[in-house]
Amino acid sequence: MKTLDLDVLSMVVAVADAGSFVRGAVLVHRSQSALSMQVKSLEAALGKSLFVRRARSVVPTQEGQVLVEYARRMLALRDEAWAALVHPDVKGRVVIGVPDDYASSLLPGVLRKFSATYPKVEIQVIGLPSHALVSLVKENKIDLACMTRVKGVRGEFIRLEPTVWAGAARGDALWKERPLPIAVFATGSVARANAIRALKRARIAYRTSYESPSLLGLLSMVEAGLAIAPIARCALPERLVQLGRAQGLPALPPLEIVLARSAGSKRPECEFLAGQILSELRA
After folding, report:
1. What is the C-alpha separation between 62 and 200, in angstroms, rounded?
2. 20 to 30 Å CA-CA from 144: which of 44, 186, 256, 264?
3. What are the DSSP calls for 208-250, one per residue?
């Protein structure tokens, strides 16, 4: 009898989304060894390879991509069926604020799963730096904020996210230059403040070669070989490399990610999304 276990399919989708067995295992809250074993067992049953293993990443084979597309539909249908029976009347609108480094790395899977489970709930995402979200939470202009903990806002602890130095992968020793060219978020960023403080403590001369509220802008400068940048590890793309003590750079403190709620967020749709975020993202 031909069977496709939905839990195993969720692992396949996680690996495809993360581009890595290590990060995929984190997404489904399993160990890397357990996830790898399940995927290998499925490949053996199908008689086909689902992923091409590369030095620093994995990508779906042609057959793997076909299975991923079917898996997404099957998992979405399962979640929709569950919601139809358990929460048939949940509807409304949730406005959530999130900085773009978390929006691009942490939230997509959570929001996709939530939308499948609660299809009648409309979600609006506001992309702003963490410090800019504080006033929006206090003024009830947004319901939730998944953000770095900053002064002036209370939030429920989600996780400590490591901060790393991002560099170009082509091998240029830009990190040896003095003053060190760095690309950083705008003033108010915790990652920026931590990086500058760490460089000063290590007595490393630096110059700010690029400043932007946009993660994409920072990554573009790094990829062009014009700067290195302190960013959350979850937002580090495969095309860049992680730099650190081996290159003589100071270690950076982690970022505390929290979920802040406005006074007007005590509604079922907000509570369900908040619960989903805490459940999915807590380490």
Report:
1. 49
2. 186
3. EEEE-S-HHHHHHHHHTTS-BEEEEGGG--TTEEEE-GGGTPP
The CA distance from 7 to 10, in Å, is 5
Q: Inform me whether the pLDDT recorded for 1 exceeds 70.
A: no
How far apart (Å, rounded) are the C-alpha atoms in residues 42 and 58? 16
pTM, 2 dp:
0.75
Separation between Cα atoms, residue 27 and residue 281, nearest integer Å: 8
Q: Quick one: which of 184, 186, 144, 187 has its CA closest to 163?
A: 184
- In terms of phi and psi (left: phi > 0; alpha: psi -120 to 50; beta: otherwise), the region of 125 is beta
Alpha carbon separation from 204 to 153, 243, 252 (Å, rounded): 32, 15, 14
pLDDT digit string, tens, across residues 230-240: 999 999 998 89
Q: What is the DSSP string of 81-129?
A: HHHHHHSTT--EEEEEEE-HHHHTTTHHHHHHHHHHH-TTEEEEEEE--
Give the number of residues written for the chain. Answer: 283
Across residues 24-44, what is the average pLDDT?
91
Pairing of strands 144-148, 92-98: parallel
What amino acid is encoded at 196 in this protein? I
Phi, psi of 17 (to 5 degrees): -70, -40
Alpha helix (H) ranges present in 142-204? 190-201
Among residues 241, 213, 219, the alpha carbon closest in space to that of 57 is found at: 241
Enter the tokens of residue 231.
Answer: 């960013």
Q: How confident is the model at residue 283 (pLDDT cuts 50, 70, 90)?
A: low
Q: Is 154 exposed, middle or buried (0-12, 13-18, 19+ CB in 10 A)?
A: exposed
